[in-house]
Amino acid sequence: MVAQFRDQDQLLSKMATGNGHGEDSPYFDGWKAYDKDPYHPTERPNGVIQMGLAENQLCFDLIQEWLMKNPEASICTPDGVENFKDIALFQDYHGLPEFREAIAKFMGKVRGGRVKFNPDRIVMSGGATGAHETMAFCLAEPGDAFLVPTPYYAGFDRDLRWRTRVQLAPVVCESCNNFKITKSALEAAYENAKEANIRVKGLLITNPSNPLGNILDRETLKGIPNFISFSEVIEEDIECNRDLIHIVYSLSKDMGFPGFRVGIVYSYNDAVVNCARKMSSFGLVSTQTQHLIASMLSDDEFVDRNQLFVWMDLRMLLKDPSFEAEIELWKVIISEVKLNVSPGSSFHCLEPGWFRVCFANMDDNTMEVALSRIKAFMHQIKDQNREGKVLAKKPCRQSSLKLSLSRRRVDDFLMSQISMSPHSPTPQSPLVPARN
To answer: What integer pLDDT is reported at residue 412 of this predicted model?
Structure first.
């Protein structure tokens, strides 16, 4: 039994009551707006359309077809129930051997077979969220920092900072060079941390980037080996200490399984693997899920990749180049256009006016409604400009926003004439090959 204090202020810890989760940011506020008034084609046709969640719903027909053909993959079906006892009994935190082997094979397959991954270095975790936190606990002390290129995924503040007390030091990337990670930007961020007496423990890179969607080219990766590299690049003859390389991966985006909470840590460092495996006890993947995933990923004909979002440039719609103007525009999009898109400030983008727009989490009809709302909004802005009610102080150097409203296919939508970052779109897989 746990004794409780009468004073509510003494009941909860500072960590529990603090703002480390980041739930009060526009990123999560958009989700709340959607939850209060979700779009439905008949019941709530004027509701908010969720375009702020990078969720892959485009492959469920393929998954359902596979499950119908392979019912033995689940221990909760008549065909698979004979394995129920073996899977339901206690398993240690190493994970099922067939699960680790399937994950390692899958990671190598999507690399085109150019890299082989060792199943013994696979550490499972409860999604990428748990995997990131595990790595932060393993590698850093409270107060230490990881360099992170901006803009970066809004959830990193929660995943890496909240409970570990680790800091994230921004590496400033700018739109003038397409948000490219440069050596000078890395050195500046490192020196800033040193001047603040902050010890830097490493560099965190997301490839492809979230929210940009771009893939780091091979030369960029080769240019920063003192910080980090990637599996395919380090197979080449470059000076790189593999003991300093750690990969976090999950099936949430590639396979559309965020609810399965399958996260992976892969490290070339024996000590990190051993430490991460012990810490994974707090967030294991259920053996039932491991069994199903092992069967699915072992099917060579089943694996594929998808795109999830675009990085949209709406700077021309800001009344002035400020984050206050960005949030003002975002509130209009949420409350009047009824679209939940995520403002760039949520991703620590240092230039106001960029937005992440997700499209893979809805059906074709909902996408058509979303596009029609964007089109109507842009016509409204055009009419206001014609009447002299100009939002932006100066015209955008890019073309006007144009939208195709034909029935959506992913390729068609990605190639539509939206004024957005030159990074978008790109194949949305953390394991796609580096561009030459």
So the answer is: 40
As given in the structure block, the two tokens for residue 228 are 């980090």
Task: Give helix 270-279 / helix 127-139 axis angle, nearest 10°.
Answer: 120
| Three-state secondary structure of the chain | CCCCCCCHHHHCCHHHHCCCCCCCCHHHHHHHHHHHCECECCCECCCEEECCCCCCCCCHHHHHHHHHHCHHHCCCCCCCHHHHHHHHCCCCCCCCHHHHHHHHHHHHHCCCCCCCCCHHHEEEEEHHHHHHHHHHHHHCCCCCEEEEECCCCCCHHHHHHCCCCCEEEEECCCHHHCCCCCHHHHHHHHHHHHHCCCCEEEECCCCCCCCCCCCCEHHHHHCCCCCCCCHHHHCCCCCCCHHHCEEEEECCCCCCCHHHCEEEEEECCHHHHHHHHHHHHHCCCCHHHHHHHHHHHCCCCCCCCCCCEEEEECHHHCCCCCHHHHHHHHHHHHHHHCEECEEHHHHCCCCCCEEEEECCCCCHHHHHHHHHHHHHHHHHHHHHHHCCCCCCCCCCCCCCCCCCCCCCCHHHHHCCCCCECCCCCCCCCCCCCCEC
Dihedral sign (CA 15, 20, 26, 32): negative
* 121-176: pLDDT as tens digits: 999 898 888 899 999 999 999 999 999 999 988 889 888 888 999 999 999 998 88
Q: Is the pLDDT higher at 311 or at 382?
A: 311
In what order do the strands lie in the sheet containing 342-343?
309-313, 354-358, 342-343
Long-range contacts of 410-413 (CB under 8 A, 24+ apart): 410/58, 410/306, 410/307, 410/359, 410/360, 413/359, 413/367
The region that residue 388 occupies, defined by phi over 0 for left and psi between -120 and 50 for alpha, beta otherwise, is left
Query: What is the CB neighbour count within 10 angstroms for residue 61?
Result: 9
What are 83-133's pLDDT values in tens digits? 888 777 777 778 888 889 988 888 887 777 778 899 999 998 988 888 999
- How far apart (Å, rounded) are the C-alpha atoms in residues 348 and 173? 10
Pairing of strands 145-149, 167-171: parallel
> Quick check: 17 and 323 in contact, CB under 8 A?
no
CB 245 within 8 A of CB 267: yes
Q: Which two structure tokens, joined as six digits, stand for 290?
A: 């491991």
How many angstroms separate the Cα of 107 from the Cα of each of 119, 206, 211?
Answer: 10, 16, 22
| Strand 145-149 relative to strand 200-203, pairing | parallel
Minimal CA–CA distance to 133: which of 155, 107, 164? 164
Distance CA 61, CA 111 (A): 25
